[in-house]
Amino acid sequence: MLPPIRGVDLMHVSRSIPVRRSTAKIEDYLALMKPRVMSLVVFTAFVGIAIAPGHIDPFSGVFAVFCIAVGAGAAGSLNMWYDFDIDAMMARTVARPIPSGRVARSEALIFGLVLGTLAVLALSIGLNVAAGALLAFTIFFYAVIYTIWLKRRTPYNIVIGGAAGALPPVVGWVASAGAIGIEPLILFLIIFLWTPPHFWALSLNHMGDYSRAGIPMLPVVAGKAETKRQILIYTVLLMPTSLLRWFLGFAGPTYGVAAAILGAAMILAAFKLRQSDDEERRPARRLFVLSVLYLGSLFAALVVDAALRVQSP
């Protein structure tokens, strides 16, 4: 059973934010696509393509990454379209295009729907229908399952909704190989387990924002101590999961050593956060930054390891 929400009435969160006439510029539409999130999606999708057994040509690979990036941008735009009201209540998001009045909600909705449709059709026609269908499901999961259904209803929104962020390397793999196997599912599990510590570390330092906006993030609902405990649990589970590729023979020692070192660093940072004072902000900030470096370094190690294995006699 989920813990009760302290002082948050989700059924009465105001959605009556005035929308001014759009004065959108190109950079505002780019902001709707959440470029920081998109960069992570692009990189993990590229890794999925690079290590898949299909070995598609460079042009097709770039085309697939572009389609996945556009799909991620579509999901981001639909997320901002729906979340305009809570974005206006949080200091971290109040300057986004819709709450600031630079982009009208209707424009963000149309922009997201058009981008998503074009990305799915292009990937389906240009490479294979399976990859296009999986990209469509990813966009749907983020925009509908996470944003509309889970985000305002459960403190485990990030846990379940993290599946959307874990799918891009699988989409990339399917674009290259044409089918799903055990290897891309391991990549999915890595990002799926990485997501809660990553976002909960961020939310620990933005509890006031989330509480004011009526979002039941775990720190708001269960408190800092429970959040730190769960961060440590997920981080500990992440390490053996990241080593699965090595244990099963899908990766060599280069990746295995990198995964072990990076996993140990994450566990150490999570343990220090668990032991820290509730008023101390730096341990959560350090874990958040480390989590970004962790995922980037781990997936880079996958590419390096795959290249070395191809070159070895």
TrEMBL record:
Its EC number is 2.5.1.141. GO terms for molecular function: protoheme IX farnesyltransferase activity. The keyword Cell membrane applies. PROSITE patterns: UBIA. The keyword Cell membrane applies. Its main location: membrane. It is an enzyme of class 2 (transferase). It comes from the Bacteria. It catalyses: heme b + (2E,6E)-farnesyl diphosphate + H2O = Fe(II)-heme o + diphosphate. GO terms for biological process: heme O biosynthetic process. Gene3D superfamilies: UbiA prenyltransferase. Pathway: Porphyrin-containing compound metabolism; heme O biosynthesis; heme O from protoheme: step 1/1. InterPro entries: Protohaem_IX_farnesylTrfase, UbiA_prenyltransferase, UbiA_prenylTrfase_CS, UbiA_sf. Keywords: Cell membrane, Heme biosynthesis, Membrane, Transferase, Transmembrane, Transmembrane helix. It is found in: Cell membrane. It is a multi-pass membrane protein. One of its GO terms (cellular component) is plasma membrane. The chain crosses the membrane at residues 37-56, 62-82, 103-123, 129-149, 156-179, 185-202, 231-248, 254-275, 287-308. Belongs to the UbiA prenyltransferase family. Protoheme IX farnesyltransferase subfamily. Converts heme B (protoheme IX) to heme O by substitution of the vinyl group on carbon 2 of heme B porphyrin ring with a hydroxyethyl farnesyl side group. Carbon 2 of the heme B porphyrin ring is defined according to the Fischer nomenclature. This is Protoheme IX farnesyltransferase. It comes from Bradyrhizobium lablabi. The gene is ctaB.
